[in-house]
Fold these 2 entries.
Entry 1:
Amino acid sequence: MQIIQMAFPQGKTKAFTVSYDDGVRQDERLLAAMRQYGIRGTFNLNYGTLGRVGHAVIDGHDTDVSTFREEELRTMYEGQEIACHALTHKKLTEISAGTAACEVIEDRRNLERVLGRLVTGFAYPFGAYDETVLQVLRSCGIRYARTVESTHAFRLPQEFLTWHPTCHHNDEKVTELLEAFCGEPVGRDGARLFYLWGHAYEFDQRDNWERAEQIFSYVSRYEAEIWFATNGEICDYTEAFRRLEFSADGGLAVNRTALDVWLLADGRAVCVPAKETVRLN
């Protein structure tokens, strides 16, 4: 029987995504660097804080936390994904389930109204969640949610509502991890994902915008084998792959989803188009 492994679109074996929070105006500079190098990702916004102008002390730094206005969102984040981050950035584990549900659903409802499309992703404010919060997200139609718990690994999540990133952009191991991700071949586990996260204002705090440039320029050299995608695209694609059905002898693959899915059959890249059956041997 063949060894079947997950692959990404066009048979690529690696994916890279980023996730940045709060909709701050520093995102504009970050987005310019992302577009320069073909990087794609997800920006998690609090609808209730849009249009804010001001500073706050964060981690001991006087930080500009001004945010974009509602009417700027479509243009500013064109080509990227917008997801939820709770209406007013409340820590969801410290409020009632009903208030938490309001924070989530009102953020989602307003962002969908502004964007004219579904918004089903999330990032936990302050990284805080528990089983009650997970149930709230499920009831509000959220399909995936990012934590702040670095794995220093390249695994896809089993549970997308507790999606742990590879690392923060200021992680001391980020260069080492990037080299391992880009330079090492895919093993028996199949497809690999590097998930970077942070806040764009943190580049101001440390005056290290060159780090974004270094990270993006480095991974862009490997574009032939890396799929650059948003969080939502990776979630959709992974779920479609996991829904593939196989014959008893492993010779047939059936794709009942609306997405084309790629796999490796004994290391050979095979596309299983949407709504089709493909012979693998």
Entry 2:
Amino acid sequence: MTKNNLNQRNKLENYLFKPKFDYENKPINRFEKDKIFNNKLELLKKLKSKIENLQECELKNNASKIVFGDGNTESPLMIIGEGPGQKEDELGKPFVGDAGILLNKMLAAININRKDIYITNVVNYRPPSNRKPETKEIKRYTEFLYEHVDIVKPKILILLGSTAMEAFFGSNLKISKERGVWKEILIKDITFLTMVTFHPAYLLRQGDQKKHSWIDLKEIRKKIDELKINI
């Protein structure tokens, strides 16, 4: 067989027997995604256990159960409220009382389903008599809250009410001036896009403020669309 014929034969064999399936990295990506998801759930489980093992905590001592988080842990949108109320304390889930019903309606108004977002509170136990968490309590739980955010890693953070605002930006701000403005917060070397708006419980007491919340909601929807976030 001449050298020329040998080269032609090799080319033919390469064509006939070379695998034609383009695997790329899809199976690896899927398994890697599952690994990240499972790791996230494990980290959340450990964080919850850490909070459950808190010592000398008045909130914990007066509550029925921990209210940790609820919703889609893979969501690009994370909502943070103040703390559990009576209904939340009974069921162990955030925003299931009257404020939760209003929140669901607020989200629906900008075409977001509650099940598609992730939600938690600054403090994970119901304050006695539904009082506002004290500054020392906010500071103590902020350590866990920041870890919570770092694990979920949302694209956008929505802070409901002055307690959530204080946890991220300090106690010297007024929510009436800070609401509706996009801010950035750095947590463990990651910058999170954040907006403060009124808490639904406040809106139930001050119905005339709903018009301001509607402006904030439209701005949130606008940002989601601008960033091409799928939710």
